Amino acid sequence: MNEMSKTLSNLAAIDAAHHLHPFSDMGKLNEAGTRIIERAEGVYIFDSNGKKYLDAFAGLWCVNIGYGRKEMAEAVSRQMNELPYYNSFFGTTTPPTTLLAQKIASHTGGHMNHVFFTNSGSEATDTWFRMARVYWKALGHPQKTKIIARRNGYHGSTVAGASLGGMKWMHEQGNLPIEGIAHIGQPYWYSEGGDLSPAEFGLKMASELEAKLDELGEDNVAAFVAEPIQGAGGVIVPPDTYWPEIARICKARNILLVSDEVICGFGRLGSWFGFQHFGYQPDLAPVAKGLSSGYLPIGGVLVSDRVAEVMIKEVGDFNHGFTYSGHPTCAAAALENIRILEDEGLVERVRDDIGPYFTKAWQSLADHEIVGEAVNVGLMGGLQLAVDKTTRQRFAKPDDVGIVVRNHCLENGLVMRATGDRMLASPALTISHSEVDRIIETLRKGLDHLRDTVKE
Ligand code: PMP
Protein backbone atom coordinates (compact mmCIF):
# COMPACT_ATOMS: atom_id res chain seq x y z
CA MET A 1 0.00 0.00 0.00
CA ASN A 2 1.47 3.37 -0.95
CA GLU A 3 1.14 6.45 1.25
CA MET A 4 -1.80 7.82 -0.73
CA SER A 5 -3.88 4.66 -0.56
CA LYS A 6 -3.05 4.29 3.15
CA THR A 7 -4.35 7.80 3.69
CA LEU A 8 -7.49 7.08 1.67
CA SER A 9 -8.25 3.87 3.55
CA ASN A 10 -8.00 5.89 6.73
CA LEU A 11 -10.10 8.79 5.49
CA ALA A 12 -13.23 8.10 7.55
CA ALA A 13 -11.13 8.16 10.73
CA ILE A 14 -9.40 11.38 9.66
CA ASP A 15 -12.78 12.85 8.84
CA ALA A 16 -14.15 11.97 12.27
CA ALA A 17 -11.07 13.51 13.88
CA HIS A 18 -11.04 16.79 11.97
CA HIS A 19 -14.10 17.59 9.90
CA LEU A 20 -17.33 19.14 11.18
CA HIS A 21 -20.05 18.58 8.57
CA PRO A 22 -22.90 20.95 7.70
CA PHE A 23 -26.39 20.13 9.04
CA SER A 24 -25.10 17.03 10.85
CA ASP A 25 -25.16 15.44 14.28
CA MET A 26 -21.42 14.89 14.48
CA GLY A 27 -21.59 12.42 17.36
CA LYS A 28 -23.88 10.11 15.40
CA LEU A 29 -22.06 10.66 12.12
CA ASN A 30 -18.70 9.77 13.62
CA GLU A 31 -20.18 6.58 15.01
CA ALA A 32 -21.80 5.59 11.75
CA GLY A 33 -18.79 6.64 9.67
CA THR A 34 -18.77 9.04 6.74
CA ARG A 35 -19.41 7.82 3.22
CA ILE A 36 -16.63 8.96 0.96
CA ILE A 37 -17.58 9.86 -2.58
CA GLU A 38 -14.58 9.57 -4.86
CA ARG A 39 -15.77 10.15 -8.38
CA ALA A 40 -18.80 10.70 -10.56
CA GLU A 41 -19.97 10.36 -14.15
CA GLY A 42 -23.28 11.33 -15.72
CA VAL A 43 -25.93 10.78 -13.04
CA TYR A 44 -23.80 8.31 -11.07
CA ILE A 45 -21.55 8.75 -8.06
CA PHE A 46 -19.06 6.16 -6.76
CA ASP A 47 -17.98 5.74 -3.15
CA SER A 48 -14.64 4.61 -1.75
CA ASN A 49 -15.84 0.98 -1.64
CA GLY A 50 -16.46 1.14 -5.36
CA LYS A 51 -20.25 1.16 -4.88
CA LYS A 52 -22.20 2.94 -7.61
CA TYR A 53 -25.26 5.05 -6.86
CA LEU A 54 -27.73 6.76 -9.14
CA ASP A 55 -27.82 10.31 -7.77
CA ALA A 56 -31.48 11.31 -8.03
CA PHE A 57 -30.72 14.50 -6.16
CA ALA A 58 -28.05 16.02 -8.44
CA GLY A 59 -25.68 16.54 -5.52
CA LEU A 60 -27.74 19.08 -3.60
CA TRP A 61 -30.26 20.11 -6.29
CA CYS A 62 -27.44 21.53 -8.34
CA VAL A 63 -25.61 19.32 -10.84
CA ASN A 64 -28.04 20.17 -13.65
CA ILE A 65 -25.74 19.18 -16.53
CA GLY A 66 -24.64 15.93 -14.84
CA TYR A 67 -21.18 14.96 -13.62
CA GLY A 68 -17.95 14.52 -15.52
CA ARG A 69 -18.35 17.15 -18.24
CA LYS A 70 -14.87 17.58 -19.68
CA GLU A 71 -15.86 20.91 -21.28
CA MET A 72 -16.31 22.33 -17.79
CA ALA A 73 -12.86 21.22 -16.67
CA GLU A 74 -11.38 22.69 -19.85
CA ALA A 75 -13.17 26.03 -19.50
CA VAL A 76 -12.04 26.33 -15.89
CA SER A 77 -8.49 25.34 -16.75
CA ARG A 78 -8.32 27.89 -19.59
CA GLN A 79 -9.54 30.67 -17.28
CA MET A 80 -7.17 29.65 -14.49
CA ASN A 81 -4.24 29.85 -16.87
CA GLU A 82 -5.37 33.21 -18.23
CA LEU A 83 -6.49 34.95 -15.05
CA PRO A 84 -7.35 32.83 -12.01
CA TYR A 85 -8.63 35.70 -9.91
CA TYR A 86 -9.28 39.35 -9.92
CA ASN A 87 -11.90 41.36 -8.06
CA SER A 88 -14.76 43.54 -9.20
CA PHE A 89 -14.11 46.25 -6.62
CA PHE A 90 -12.43 49.60 -7.35
CA GLY A 91 -13.75 50.01 -10.88
CA THR A 92 -12.56 46.77 -12.46
CA THR A 93 -14.11 43.64 -13.86
CA THR A 94 -12.95 40.56 -15.79
CA PRO A 95 -14.26 39.32 -19.14
CA PRO A 96 -16.11 36.20 -17.90
CA THR A 97 -17.74 38.11 -15.06
CA THR A 98 -19.25 40.75 -17.30
CA LEU A 99 -20.19 38.29 -20.03
CA LEU A 100 -21.88 36.09 -17.47
CA ALA A 101 -24.02 38.99 -16.20
CA GLN A 102 -25.11 39.65 -19.80
CA LYS A 103 -25.77 35.97 -20.46
CA ILE A 104 -27.92 35.52 -17.34
CA ALA A 105 -29.89 38.68 -18.13
CA SER A 106 -30.64 37.32 -21.60
CA HIS A 107 -32.68 34.50 -20.07
CA THR A 108 -34.81 36.50 -17.63
CA GLY A 109 -37.41 37.61 -20.17
CA GLY A 110 -36.36 41.23 -20.41
CA HIS A 111 -37.19 42.88 -17.09
CA MET A 112 -34.09 41.83 -15.10
CA ASN A 113 -30.99 43.18 -16.79
CA HIS A 114 -28.49 43.35 -13.92
CA VAL A 115 -26.77 40.81 -11.70
CA PHE A 116 -24.91 41.20 -8.39
CA PHE A 117 -22.57 38.24 -7.89
CA THR A 118 -22.06 36.20 -4.72
CA ASN A 119 -20.53 32.80 -3.92
CA SER A 120 -23.62 31.02 -2.68
CA GLY A 121 -27.37 31.14 -2.29
CA SER A 122 -27.07 32.26 1.31
CA GLU A 123 -24.90 35.22 0.34
CA ALA A 124 -27.40 36.02 -2.38
CA THR A 125 -30.07 36.14 0.31
CA ASP A 126 -28.03 38.53 2.44
CA THR A 127 -27.41 40.63 -0.66
CA TRP A 128 -31.04 41.15 -1.70
CA PHE A 129 -31.99 41.62 1.97
CA ARG A 130 -29.72 44.66 2.18
CA MET A 131 -30.49 45.82 -1.34
CA ALA A 132 -34.26 45.87 -0.71
CA ARG A 133 -33.81 48.13 2.30
CA VAL A 134 -31.31 50.35 0.51
CA TYR A 135 -33.75 50.66 -2.40
CA TRP A 136 -36.60 51.95 -0.25
CA LYS A 137 -34.34 54.27 1.72
CA ALA A 138 -33.08 55.82 -1.50
CA LEU A 139 -36.68 56.43 -2.53
CA GLY A 140 -37.35 58.30 0.71
CA HIS A 141 -38.95 55.45 2.64
CA PRO A 142 -36.31 54.54 5.26
CA GLN A 143 -38.95 52.91 7.46
CA LYS A 144 -39.80 50.34 4.80
CA THR A 145 -37.50 47.65 6.22
CA LYS A 146 -39.49 44.63 7.31
CA ILE A 147 -39.38 41.47 5.27
CA ILE A 148 -42.16 38.90 5.12
CA ALA A 149 -41.19 35.28 4.50
CA ARG A 150 -42.88 31.92 5.03
CA ARG A 151 -42.94 29.11 7.56
CA ASN A 152 -41.01 26.11 6.23
CA GLY A 153 -39.32 28.22 3.58
CA TYR A 154 -35.55 27.90 3.07
CA HIS A 155 -33.24 30.74 2.08
CA GLY A 156 -29.83 29.68 3.36
CA SER A 157 -28.00 29.41 6.64
CA THR A 158 -26.28 32.73 7.17
CA VAL A 159 -27.87 34.85 9.89
CA ALA A 160 -30.23 36.58 7.44
CA GLY A 161 -30.83 33.38 5.49
CA ALA A 162 -31.71 31.27 8.53
CA SER A 163 -33.87 34.10 9.91
CA LEU A 164 -35.83 34.45 6.69
CA GLY A 165 -36.19 30.71 6.42
CA GLY A 166 -39.13 29.39 8.33
CA MET A 167 -37.44 26.43 9.98
CA LYS A 168 -37.97 26.50 13.74
CA TRP A 169 -35.14 24.08 14.36
CA MET A 170 -32.78 26.53 12.69
CA HIS A 171 -34.14 29.53 14.62
CA GLU A 172 -33.48 27.66 17.85
CA GLN A 173 -29.73 27.74 17.19
CA GLY A 174 -28.20 31.20 17.42
CA ASN A 175 -31.17 33.22 18.73
CA LEU A 176 -32.91 33.73 15.42
CA PRO A 177 -34.75 35.22 13.68
CA ILE A 178 -33.18 38.66 13.77
CA GLU A 179 -35.49 41.64 14.10
CA GLY A 180 -37.60 42.89 11.26
CA ILE A 181 -38.70 39.56 9.83
CA ALA A 182 -42.23 38.15 9.90
CA HIS A 183 -43.44 34.76 8.71
CA ILE A 184 -46.74 33.73 7.17
CA GLY A 185 -48.11 30.27 6.33
CA GLN A 186 -47.08 28.01 3.47
CA PRO A 187 -49.26 26.69 0.64
CA TYR A 188 -48.91 23.07 1.80
CA TRP A 189 -52.39 21.84 0.94
CA TYR A 190 -51.82 18.17 1.73
CA SER A 191 -50.98 18.86 5.34
CA GLU A 192 -52.75 22.10 6.12
CA GLY A 193 -55.53 22.45 3.57
CA GLY A 194 -58.26 20.81 5.68
CA ASP A 195 -61.58 20.67 3.83
CA LEU A 196 -60.69 23.42 1.37
CA SER A 197 -60.03 22.59 -2.25
CA PRO A 198 -56.41 23.22 -3.33
CA ALA A 199 -57.60 26.29 -5.25
CA GLU A 200 -59.39 27.73 -2.22
CA PHE A 201 -56.45 26.95 0.02
CA GLY A 202 -54.01 28.66 -2.37
CA LEU A 203 -56.04 31.85 -2.12
CA LYS A 204 -56.34 31.53 1.64
CA MET A 205 -52.56 31.23 2.06
CA ALA A 206 -51.95 34.18 -0.26
CA SER A 207 -54.42 36.21 1.79
CA GLU A 208 -52.13 35.73 4.80
CA LEU A 209 -49.72 38.08 3.06
CA GLU A 210 -52.45 40.70 2.82
CA ALA A 211 -53.34 40.21 6.49
CA LYS A 212 -49.70 40.51 7.53
CA LEU A 213 -49.38 43.73 5.53
CA ASP A 214 -52.47 45.09 7.29
CA GLU A 215 -50.91 44.18 10.63
CA LEU A 216 -47.44 45.58 9.98
CA GLY A 217 -48.50 48.47 7.75
CA GLU A 218 -47.24 48.26 4.20
CA ASP A 219 -45.24 51.44 4.71
CA ASN A 220 -43.02 49.41 7.02
CA VAL A 221 -42.53 46.45 4.69
CA ALA A 222 -39.76 46.24 2.11
CA ALA A 223 -40.37 42.84 0.52
CA PHE A 224 -41.96 39.43 0.48
CA VAL A 225 -39.73 36.44 -0.30
CA ALA A 226 -40.65 32.91 -1.36
CA GLU A 227 -39.35 30.00 -3.36
CA PRO A 228 -41.47 29.31 -6.48
CA ILE A 229 -41.68 25.74 -5.14
CA GLN A 230 -40.39 25.16 -1.61
CA GLY A 231 -37.39 22.85 -1.95
CA ALA A 232 -35.87 21.94 1.40
CA GLY A 233 -39.35 22.30 2.92
CA GLY A 234 -40.38 19.17 1.00
CA VAL A 235 -41.01 20.12 -2.63
CA ILE A 236 -44.29 21.81 -1.81
CA VAL A 237 -45.92 22.71 -5.12
CA PRO A 238 -48.37 25.56 -4.48
CA PRO A 239 -51.94 25.41 -5.83
CA ASP A 240 -52.36 27.24 -9.16
CA THR A 241 -54.24 30.08 -7.48
CA TYR A 242 -51.36 30.97 -5.18
CA TRP A 243 -48.73 32.78 -7.23
CA PRO A 244 -51.01 35.08 -9.27
CA GLU A 245 -52.58 36.29 -6.04
CA ILE A 246 -49.23 36.80 -4.31
CA ALA A 247 -47.95 38.79 -7.30
CA ARG A 248 -51.14 40.89 -7.31
CA ILE A 249 -50.82 41.69 -3.60
CA CYS A 250 -47.14 42.68 -3.82
CA LYS A 251 -47.96 45.05 -6.66
CA ALA A 252 -51.11 46.51 -5.09
CA ARG A 253 -49.40 47.07 -1.73
CA ASN A 254 -46.15 48.33 -3.22
CA ILE A 255 -43.66 45.88 -1.71
CA LEU A 256 -40.86 44.13 -3.58
CA LEU A 257 -41.42 40.55 -4.65
CA VAL A 258 -38.34 38.36 -4.20
CA SER A 259 -38.35 34.99 -5.95
CA ASP A 260 -35.75 32.63 -4.48
CA GLU A 261 -34.57 30.83 -7.60
CA VAL A 262 -31.64 29.00 -6.00
CA ILE A 263 -33.22 25.60 -6.79
CA CYS A 264 -35.80 26.41 -9.45
CA GLY A 265 -33.44 28.49 -11.61
CA PHE A 266 -31.54 27.16 -14.61
CA GLY A 267 -33.95 24.66 -16.01
CA ARG A 268 -35.21 22.44 -13.24
CA LEU A 269 -38.88 23.27 -13.88
CA GLY A 270 -38.55 23.29 -17.68
CA SER A 271 -38.14 27.07 -17.78
CA TRP A 272 -35.02 29.14 -17.17
CA PHE A 273 -36.50 30.44 -13.93
CA GLY A 274 -39.34 29.38 -11.67
CA PHE A 275 -41.09 32.75 -12.00
CA GLN A 276 -41.46 32.06 -15.73
CA HIS A 277 -43.14 28.75 -15.02
CA PHE A 278 -45.62 30.36 -12.63
CA GLY A 279 -46.00 33.53 -14.71
CA TYR A 280 -44.99 36.35 -12.36
CA GLN A 281 -42.25 38.99 -12.51
CA PRO A 282 -40.13 39.37 -9.38
CA ASP A 283 -38.18 42.50 -8.46
CA LEU A 284 -35.20 40.53 -7.12
CA ALA A 285 -34.21 36.89 -7.57
CA PRO A 286 -31.34 35.13 -5.79
CA VAL A 287 -29.70 32.32 -7.79
CA ALA A 288 -26.86 29.79 -7.23
CA LYS A 289 -26.66 25.98 -7.63
CA GLY A 290 -27.68 25.36 -11.28
CA LEU A 291 -25.90 28.55 -12.35
CA SER A 292 -22.66 26.55 -12.44
CA SER A 293 -24.21 23.11 -11.93
CA GLY A 294 -22.18 23.07 -8.73
CA TYR A 295 -18.86 22.66 -10.56
CA LEU A 296 -17.60 25.77 -8.78
CA PRO A 297 -19.34 27.92 -6.16
CA ILE A 298 -21.11 30.96 -7.55
CA GLY A 299 -24.40 32.71 -6.89
CA GLY A 300 -25.96 36.07 -7.50
CA VAL A 301 -29.01 38.26 -7.35
CA LEU A 302 -30.94 39.09 -10.53
CA VAL A 303 -32.02 42.69 -10.24
CA SER A 304 -35.06 44.07 -12.07
CA ASP A 305 -34.83 47.31 -14.00
CA ARG A 306 -37.06 48.93 -11.38
CA VAL A 307 -34.55 48.25 -8.59
CA ALA A 308 -31.39 48.61 -10.71
CA GLU A 309 -32.35 52.10 -11.80
CA VAL A 310 -32.53 53.26 -8.19
CA MET A 311 -29.33 51.41 -7.24
CA ILE A 312 -27.51 53.07 -10.14
CA LYS A 313 -28.98 56.58 -10.05
CA GLU A 314 -29.90 57.21 -6.42
CA VAL A 315 -27.91 55.08 -4.00
CA GLY A 316 -24.30 56.07 -4.57
CA ASP A 317 -21.97 53.48 -3.06
CA PHE A 318 -23.68 50.19 -2.19
CA ASN A 319 -21.41 49.13 0.68
CA HIS A 320 -21.69 45.44 0.09
CA GLY A 321 -19.77 42.71 -1.72
CA PHE A 322 -17.44 39.77 -1.41
CA THR A 323 -13.80 39.22 -2.26
CA TYR A 324 -14.99 36.60 -4.71
CA SER A 325 -18.03 38.44 -6.13
CA GLY A 326 -17.91 37.58 -9.84
CA HIS A 327 -14.82 35.36 -9.43
CA PRO A 328 -13.56 34.94 -13.01
CA THR A 329 -12.90 31.20 -12.80
CA CYS A 330 -16.32 30.52 -11.27
CA ALA A 331 -17.86 32.85 -13.86
CA ALA A 332 -16.10 30.90 -16.63
CA ALA A 333 -17.59 27.70 -15.21
CA ALA A 334 -21.06 29.27 -15.12
CA LEU A 335 -20.71 30.54 -18.70
CA GLU A 336 -19.71 27.10 -19.93
CA ASN A 337 -22.54 25.53 -17.94
CA ILE A 338 -25.08 27.88 -19.54
CA ARG A 339 -23.56 27.20 -22.97
CA ILE A 340 -24.16 23.48 -22.38
CA LEU A 341 -27.73 24.11 -21.19
CA GLU A 342 -28.35 26.18 -24.33
CA ASP A 343 -26.52 24.08 -26.92
CA GLU A 344 -28.00 20.81 -25.72
CA GLY A 345 -31.45 22.34 -25.29
CA LEU A 346 -31.62 20.98 -21.75
CA VAL A 347 -34.24 23.44 -20.50
CA GLU A 348 -36.49 22.57 -23.45
CA ARG A 349 -35.72 18.89 -22.84
CA VAL A 350 -37.14 19.21 -19.34
CA ARG A 351 -40.20 21.04 -20.68
CA ASP A 352 -40.93 18.73 -23.64
CA ASP A 353 -39.32 15.35 -23.07
CA ILE A 354 -37.75 14.21 -19.82
CA GLY A 355 -40.01 16.42 -17.66
CA PRO A 356 -43.24 14.88 -19.00
CA TYR A 357 -41.63 11.42 -18.83
CA PHE A 358 -40.60 11.98 -15.21
CA THR A 359 -44.06 13.35 -14.37
CA LYS A 360 -45.76 10.19 -15.59
CA ALA A 361 -43.28 7.91 -13.84
CA TRP A 362 -43.19 9.87 -10.57
CA GLN A 363 -46.94 10.32 -10.35
CA SER A 364 -47.46 6.59 -10.96
CA LEU A 365 -46.21 6.14 -7.39
CA ALA A 366 -49.42 7.75 -6.13
CA ASP A 367 -51.07 4.33 -6.34
CA HIS A 368 -48.82 2.95 -3.57
CA GLU A 369 -50.64 2.27 -0.28
CA ILE A 370 -48.49 4.61 1.78
CA VAL A 371 -48.21 7.44 -0.72
CA GLY A 372 -50.55 10.36 -0.11
CA GLU A 373 -49.52 12.42 -3.11
CA ALA A 374 -46.76 12.38 -5.71
CA VAL A 375 -46.29 15.85 -7.16
CA ASN A 376 -43.68 17.46 -9.38
CA VAL A 377 -42.92 20.21 -11.82
CA GLY A 378 -40.29 19.28 -14.39
CA LEU A 379 -37.51 17.44 -12.58
CA MET A 380 -38.40 18.49 -9.06
CA GLY A 381 -40.52 15.90 -7.31
CA GLY A 382 -42.06 15.52 -3.85
CA LEU A 383 -43.76 12.41 -2.54
CA GLN A 384 -45.91 12.51 0.59
CA LEU A 385 -45.82 9.43 2.81
CA ALA A 386 -49.20 8.92 4.49
CA VAL A 387 -51.11 6.39 6.54
CA ASP A 388 -54.47 7.01 4.87
CA LYS A 389 -54.84 8.47 1.42
CA THR A 390 -58.50 9.37 1.67
CA THR A 391 -58.28 11.29 4.94
CA ARG A 392 -54.76 12.58 4.18
CA GLN A 393 -53.65 11.26 7.56
CA ARG A 394 -49.89 11.52 8.05
CA PHE A 395 -47.68 9.15 10.02
CA ALA A 396 -47.66 9.75 13.78
CA LYS A 397 -43.93 10.44 13.74
CA PRO A 398 -43.38 12.11 10.36
CA ASP A 399 -39.70 12.76 11.07
CA ASP A 400 -38.97 9.02 11.35
CA VAL A 401 -40.45 7.61 8.16
CA GLY A 402 -38.74 9.27 5.21
CA ILE A 403 -35.36 8.24 6.51
CA VAL A 404 -36.39 4.55 6.41
CA VAL A 405 -37.18 4.83 2.70
CA ARG A 406 -34.09 6.92 2.05
CA ASN A 407 -31.77 4.39 3.70
CA HIS A 408 -33.38 1.51 1.83
CA CYS A 409 -32.84 3.35 -1.45
CA LEU A 410 -29.25 4.07 -0.50
CA GLU A 411 -28.58 0.38 0.19
CA ASN A 412 -29.98 -0.32 -3.25
CA GLY A 413 -27.79 2.21 -4.99
CA LEU A 414 -30.12 5.21 -5.20
CA VAL A 415 -29.50 8.60 -3.60
CA MET A 416 -32.76 10.31 -2.62
CA ARG A 417 -33.49 12.90 -0.01
CA ALA A 418 -36.05 12.66 2.76
CA THR A 419 -37.50 15.67 4.54
CA GLY A 420 -39.59 14.28 7.38
CA ASP A 421 -42.35 12.34 5.66
CA ARG A 422 -41.68 13.58 2.13
CA MET A 423 -39.30 11.99 -0.36
CA LEU A 424 -37.59 14.43 -2.70
CA ALA A 425 -36.05 13.96 -6.13
CA SER A 426 -34.19 16.45 -8.26
CA PRO A 427 -32.03 14.63 -10.82
CA ALA A 428 -29.71 16.07 -13.46
CA LEU A 429 -31.49 17.49 -16.51
CA THR A 430 -29.51 15.01 -18.61
CA ILE A 431 -31.02 11.92 -16.97
CA SER A 432 -32.25 9.25 -19.42
CA HIS A 433 -35.68 7.63 -19.54
CA SER A 434 -34.31 4.31 -18.32
CA GLU A 435 -32.53 6.02 -15.43
CA VAL A 436 -35.83 7.60 -14.42
CA ASP A 437 -37.39 4.11 -14.53
CA ARG A 438 -34.65 2.89 -12.23
CA ILE A 439 -35.40 5.67 -9.70
CA ILE A 440 -39.06 4.73 -9.66
CA GLU A 441 -38.41 0.97 -9.34
CA THR A 442 -35.95 1.40 -6.47
CA LEU A 443 -38.10 3.98 -4.71
CA ARG A 444 -41.13 1.69 -4.99
CA LYS A 445 -39.14 -1.05 -3.23
CA GLY A 446 -38.22 1.46 -0.53
CA LEU A 447 -41.91 2.29 -0.09
CA ASP A 448 -42.76 -1.42 0.17
CA HIS A 449 -40.05 -1.73 2.79
CA LEU A 450 -41.49 1.11 4.87
CA ARG A 451 -45.01 -0.34 4.55
CA ASP A 452 -43.78 -3.75 5.74
CA THR A 453 -41.73 -2.22 8.55
CA VAL A 454 -44.71 -0.22 9.78
CA LYS A 455 -46.96 -3.30 9.69
CA GLU A 456 -44.48 -5.21 11.81
N1 PMP B 1 -32.28 29.37 -1.18
C1 PMP B 1 -32.78 28.17 -1.47
C2 PMP B 1 -34.16 28.07 -2.04
C3 PMP B 1 -32.03 27.01 -1.27
O1 PMP B 1 -32.54 25.81 -1.53
C4 PMP B 1 -30.72 27.14 -0.77
C5 PMP B 1 -29.82 25.94 -0.55
N2 PMP B 1 -30.38 24.71 -0.51
C6 PMP B 1 -30.24 28.42 -0.46
C7 PMP B 1 -31.04 29.51 -0.69
C8 PMP B 1 -28.88 28.61 0.12
O2 PMP B 1 -27.92 28.33 -0.80
P1 PMP B 1 -26.42 27.96 -0.33
O3 PMP B 1 -26.50 26.63 0.34
O4 PMP B 1 -25.66 27.96 -1.62
O5 PMP B 1 -25.97 29.04 0.57
Give the topology, please.
Layout: H1 3-9, H2 11-18, H3 26-32, E1 37-41, E2 44-47, E3 52-55, H4 58-61, H5 70-82, H6 95-105, E4 114-118, H7 121-138, E5 146-150, H8 159-164, H9 168-171, E6 181-184, H10 189-192, H11 198-216, E7 221-226, H12 242-252, E8 256-259, H13 274-278, E9 284-287, E10 299-303, H14 305-313, H15 328-343, H16 346-352, H17 354-363, E11 371-377, E12 380-385, H18 398-411, E13 414-415, E14 417-419, E15 422-425, H19 433-455
Parallel strand pairs: 3-13, 5-6, 5-7, 7-8
Antiparallel strand pairs: 1-2, 2-3, 4-10, 9-10, 11-12, 12-15, 14-15
The structure holds 4'-deoxy-4'-aminopyridoxal-5'-phosphate.
4'-deoxy-4'-aminopyridoxal-5'-phosphate binds at residues 120-122, 125, 154-156, 227, 231-232, 260, 262-263, 288, 299.
Describe the structure.
The model has no long low-confidence stretch (mean pLDDT about 95). This protein has a 4-stranded mixed beta sheet with strand order 1-2-3-13. Strands 6-5-7-8 form a 4-stranded parallel beta sheet, sandwiched between helices. The protein has 19 helices and 15 strands. With about 450 residues, it is of the alpha/beta class. The protein starts with a helix and ends with a helix. The chain is globular, with a radius of gyration of 22 Å. The protein folds into 2 domains: about 35-65 and about 350-455, Aspartate Aminotransferase, domain 1; about 70-345, 3-Layer(aba) Sandwich (Aspartate Aminotransferase, domain 2). The chain binds 4'-deoxy-4'-aminopyridoxal-5'-phosphate. 4'-deoxy-4'-aminopyridoxal-5'-phosphate binds next to helix 7.
